[in-house]
Amino acid sequence: MKTAVISDIHGNLEALQATLESIDAMDIGRTVCLGDIVGYGADPDACVELIQKRNIPSVIGNHDMAVTGGLSTENFSILARSAAEWTRSVISKEHASYLAGLPYTIERDDALFVHSSPDLPNFFRYILNQNDAALSFDAFDTGICFIGHTHRPSVFCEDGSSAVVSKGNRFIVNVGSVGQPRDGDRRACFLVFDHEQFSIEYFRVDYDIESAASKIIAAGLPQKLADRLRLGI
Ligand code: ZN
Question: What is the DSSP letter of 104?
Fold first, then answer.
């Protein structure tokens, strides 16, 4: 059994479509989404619709919650806040209630899926380094936990000894971002987890960045949100 794990789509339809095409071309049993389906990008409704149409189970992200009024944006950056307000003003009621109903965690076959961190998943803590990750291993029982939230692909192992997912250790793995990568590589990012082999493989996918960026400008969203897609930061 293999699972493709996608996260942080952020209303970027072009990136989501290219990513799903890439997953379709492989022999993968299922796809799981780690949330932040909306926020920042110009196509929140189309992205939610595609996730629903494909029956992709998803957990809730902080942007999904902010858009549906479940989370205050007072701790958001100015960019994130203005994007959340714009998204709230355009998203359909049906899609907003779908987002509001998403769970904090999903567990499947010795893998846990959560947006930010397995401890206090409703707090949206950032796991940026080994110290941040160390606080989380006691909070879950599975061998591996997949997270998003920082938009930076990374691997943390329980005893700090390895950056390569392999049997005999427990891992927290950040899958990177489909719709707004921030690791300097502007291509969409996702990974595939092989449950039997207990291994992961990252993939990067080219997509029509200019189209996604020009829609952001046309929607009246901040120019910076278009620029960061072009730069991957
Ligand atoms: Zn995000």
Answer: S
- Kindly report the pTM of this predicted structure: 0.97
The pairing of strands 154-157 and 144-147 is unpaired
Kindly give the distance from the C-alpha atom of residue 130 to the centroid of ligand 1, in angstroms, as a whole number. Answer: 20
pLDDT, residue 18, reads: 98
Distance CA 192, CA 63 (A): 24
Q: How far is the CA of 72 from the centre of ligand 1 (A)?
A: 15
Contact 148, 34 (CB under 8 A): yes
Amino acid at residue number 19: T
Tokens of 167: 């049997």
Walk along the chain (233 residues) in steps of 10 and give the mean pLDDT of each run. 97 98 94 98 98 98 95 92 96 98 97 97 95 95 98 96 93 98 98 97 98 98 97 95
State the distance from the centre of ligand 1 to the C-alpha of 169, rounded, in angstroms: 27
Amino acid of residue 63 = H
* Distance from Cα 10 to the centre of ligand 1, integer Å: 7
Q: How far apart are CA 65 and CA 108, in angstroms?
A: 23
φ/ψ of 82, rounded to 5, equals: -65, -35
> Which amino acid type is present at position 101?
G
